[in-house]
Amino acid sequence: MPDEKPASTSPSTSAEFKIKKEISRKEIALCMARVPESGRVYIGTSDSGVYEIDTVTEKAEPKKCEGEGHTGYVMGAALTETHLVTGAYDKHLVWWDLKTGKQTRRQSAHEKWLRGVEVSPDGKTIASVADDMVCRLWKADSGELIRELRGHAVETPHHYPSMLYCCAFSPDGAWLATADKVGQIVVWERSSGKPAKTLQSPGMYTWDPKQRRHSIGGIRSIRFSPDSKTLAVGGVGFIGNIDHLDGKARVELFDWQQGTSLKVIESDKQKGLVEHMAFHPKGDWLLCAGGDHSGWLVFIDPKTQKVVREDKAPMHVHEFALSEKADQLYTVGHGRVVRWELSA
Fold first, then answer.
1. Which candidate, 92, 213, 223, 233, has a CA 20 to 30 Å from the CA of 129?
2. Is 309 domain-assigned?
3. Residue 329, in any domain of the structure
4. 7 in a structural domain
5. Each residue of 150-201: pLDDT tens digit?
6. Which residues pair with 177 in a beta bridge?
7. DSSP single-letter state for residue 4
8. Which is nearest to 81 in space by CA: 167, 141, 170?
9. Cβ-contact 251, 300 below 8 angstroms
10. What is the CATH number of the domain that holds 237?
11. Which residues form the domain of 207?
């Protein structure tokens, strides 16, 4: 770990996550899900595979889940009480039995690349988002379609296909938020499927009208605070060279019920995409992770709305999971799975 000191400290961020184990992988781990109260994680990868790894064992050998599985990048993973549910660029959802590691269901879910999979706090509903710009809700036990949520434009303002990157349930289970390439956020009432609020974060989107006629960016991560009142979205700021992720890592906080932006936070040290975020269980901090060619962890104090710590990661981080007490951290990304522990 680097010797960088945080710009400021507080009781919740004066401690540091230190690497305890690195597990090398040939492929890119694009998503993950952690088994509660354990160091066991499931990862979805760029070779279309789904693997189980126990990060606390000495060798931590990956075990591939058995079945037809996926035929494209595995982009989303979520755990129910009995199954792991994964989604991929092949537009399918797959259910894997947690006891046997075998596939029990595979079904077509979207018309374009599937980007994300989330499970509701009660474990009863699976949400999936894809580049067909639809969020679909499924019964977690049977895979039956509950409803479709359509509120995002199919094209960008410059008449190119848009992308629906991410979604998140609120901790109280009442709401679901979705976010897209041009920075639009829709918060839905879970029980009815009706839109409750639409928000905009246009600073996440860069359009090059001259050299490339191409856009880049988008909201890549979204999370509710523990009290479900604040909504955080993450991506990247303005990109001068769209062939590289040279924009600043960017987060915007919203009082979503009031429909107001609370703060735009850009890192002065870290560039690239905020790929994943999570709040401390008590709301003490918001952890953001991602990267460009390298990777990083950025901690934000939700009260002061300022960056309070920035650390390097050994790879571009695509997703992470916190333990129940937020004293263990599991990150996955380019060529590595890493287990961290909190140290005072």
1. 213
2. yes
3. yes
4. no
5. 999 999 998 999 999 999 999 999 999 999 999 999 999 999 999 999 999 9
6. 168, 187
7. P
8. 141
9. yes
10. 2.130.10.10
11. 16-343
